[in-house]
Amino acid sequence: MKSLLPQSLPSLPRRLLRSRRVNLLFKVSALILILSILEAWYHSQISLSIPRPAEHHDLDEPFSIGCQDVSKLVTQPREKAVLVMLARNSELKEAKKTMENVEDRFNKWFNYPVLFLNNEPWGEDFVNALKGTVSGDAKFEVIPDGIWGPTAGLTEEVVGEYLKQQELEGVYKGEIEGYHHMCRFYSGEFYNLEALKEYKYYWRLEPGVSYGCSLTYDPFVEMARRGKKYGYTVALWEEPNTCPSLFRTVDEFRTQNNIPMHPNWKAMIDAETSWLLKPAPIRWLLGKIVQREHYNIKGEKWNLCHYWSNFEIADLDFFRGKQYQKLFKHLDKTGGFYRERWGDAPVHSLAVHLLLEAKELHHFSDVGYYHEPFWQCPQNAKGKQLSSNVMIGEARKGMSEERDGGFGCRCECGLGKKGDWRMRNNRGICLEKVQQPAAWNRASWWDLRRRRWPYTVGFDSEGNKAG
């Protein structure tokens, strides 16, 4: 009887068991894959999403539309503010040109003091030339010993090795020791200078920059009146190889001090790139094990966006306050300003997005600004150029055309290249990202797809009012 049964019959139970195991393994694997994809989508599209402002309106807007009657403003009280320029004696020509431009476009009406800083003694030629350009007080200070230099504990030999390595790796200005000093100085030590103690606000200037629009209102008064603590013009991507570990180090400070993942901080995180490939296990691997550049310990990546700090108007009380100074010391003790080439621009940018609310940031979208090679320059507000105003003076030759939706005052665009009348020569990708927490009116998915990034909060790519 047994001989009549197929030879393979005794192995059927084993085959069925093996088949069930394979089937179960496939189902479990498929379930894990689906859950991982869902988790990755939820983390990127929900956890890191930036809600529109709870106030149901844009949290930032131009301080002025067109020109203001300066004669009515110059008699009003001033803020305790100062214009600051860090320069070398060799930059006399560039510094003088910039100060003449700033005086012509703004300070001849408001007469704010200007503080010139140098890490070396000032030359007589520089002092005499610049004194003659400033309508307010001109002050010339030498940065005290111990403030301009490397982080405490770093020897010249160690710093030298860092610089050599960065030169080999092609890090932008990584081999220039003075540039490292400058970045560290502007990131922290600058704010505690004795020469700044009497002031609440500062406007940073640099030799060689130029302003293409007239500023016929007092930006310091407006900053105070509207509760703004940090003002900027241009937002760009940072050079990736200058600061591989900066974002991780700042985020470590955030977690150590129990600072929540609020919308303004989320604006600095890349929530879009290949989210499908970044479920929790992959993020954990990238962040904690591999410690990949520009990732925090949770595997979230910095989008590299930052404000160009060669222009900034800001509240000194914020930067010399307890929280910011604590953050600076946390960064400084790692040696990153020399081990890498951390710039003051990304340090300031990450700091204001970590420690301030979106409503405390302001885009000076009405300021025409050029620092080689980038610029921004708004359109002139139609019918609001006050061409007959005695104090502002006659309209300039070469002034950009007036147009509906414009908000500039006496702007002459084409700042970086004659005949190039674009409002900016840098893509607005970063500006759109960092402004999201303040934007109630946002560009549509279709506009972003077509590369029509907003000019600023509440204004479309052509400078027209949104909403």
Automatic annotation (TrEMBL):
Name of this protein: Nucleotide-diphospho-sugar transferase
Gene3D superfamilies: Spore Coat Polysaccharide Biosynthesis Protein SpsA, Chain A
GO cellular component terms, A-Z: Golgi apparatus; membrane
Annotated InterPro entries: Glyco_trans_15, Nucleotide-diphossugar_trans
Organism domain of life: Eukaryota
Residue intervals passing through the bilayer: 24-42
Native organism: Triangularia setosa
Single GO term (MF): alpha-1,2-mannosyltransferase activity
Phylogenetic lineage: Eukaryota, Fungi, Dikarya, Ascomycota, Pezizomycotina
GO biological process, one term: protein N-linked glycosylation
Active site: 312
Similarity annotation: Belongs to the glycosyltransferase 15 family.
Annotated keywords: Glycosyltransferase, Membrane, Transferase, Transmembrane, Transmembrane helix
